[in-house]
Amino acid sequence: MNERSTGRRIRSRAGWRARAAALAVAVLTAVGVGVVAAPAQAYYTNSAHDFRVLTHVQNKGWTSTPGTRGAGLRLEAIRVTQLQHKVICLNAHVANIGWQGKRCTSGKGTTITVGTTGRDLAIEAVTLTRPGNTYGMTATVHIQNVGDKTIGVGKGIGGFTVGTTGKRLRMEWFELKTS
Q1: How far apart are CA 149 and CA 159, in angstroms?
Q2: CA distance readout (Å), 160 to 98, 108, 116, 130
Q3: CB-CB contact of 66 with 171 (8 Å)
Q4: Tens digits of per-residue pLDDT, 37-55?
């Protein structure tokens, strides 16, 4: 076997593997299984790392950023992992669905996800609460045609809602900070 035919054979195997991988991703996507090429590095809510947050953005999938600004891409889901003792609850208002129902972390290492993936539906608003109101938190969102809005509450004060309902305006950015 000469060098030329060996090179051709190697390229053809590599091409076959790439085509097989692309086909597998297409099949999994078609049946509704989310495929992520590499795990995204999440952003953290503060220097003490109370929560790790991932966002699912239109045409990008799961990302380590809080979303996008100025790109016109909808935020489709938010995933929060509890890393310390602080517990958080989220409830998302999703286009064409409405309020999904409150989901809460329940201990160190637990994860909650609000919103949807694979359905092309935007999160329009999120309600945040903390059982016992034992810490302060702030959320900054970017809303379609509105811009940035920041709302926060201190320790001992109830939760809040960010975003809009009934206006069909997508959230494009969701950033959570705790104190």
Answers
A1: 16
A2: 17, 23, 21, 10
A3: no
A4: 434 455 667 656 899 999 9
